[in-house]
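Q: Hi! First time doing this. I have a protein sequence and I read that you can turn it into a structure. Is that right? Here it is:
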Amino acid sequence: MHEIGIVRQLVRTLTDFAAENDVKDIREVVVDCGELSLVIPEYLEELYPVVAKGSILENAKLTVCMVPGLAECEDCDEIFNVIEHKGYCPKCGSFEKTVLSGKDFTIREIVVPN
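A: Yes, that's right. Below is the predicted 3D structure, encoded as structure tokens:
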């Protein structure tokens, strides 16, 4: 389960950000999780409260937004969802593709009180 390392790094990154920017409270953290990133959102949500305990993030809500794994077929230029079509182009059946989105895990937003 590599999600524990991801959550630890997320908490470390946000704690460092808060210290560097004199942020005293974080209400919510929004992350983008790509369908093709091999990160399991349910594990993130389970681990986050445990890892964040005792930090500035202890009461912050974690919101995970899924980013679809989209690709462009190299043979016919069709844009398609890789997971939905099991990696094959739904138009021509080719497996040759360029992945356009859905491989990353990024922090999208940090919500702090006014």
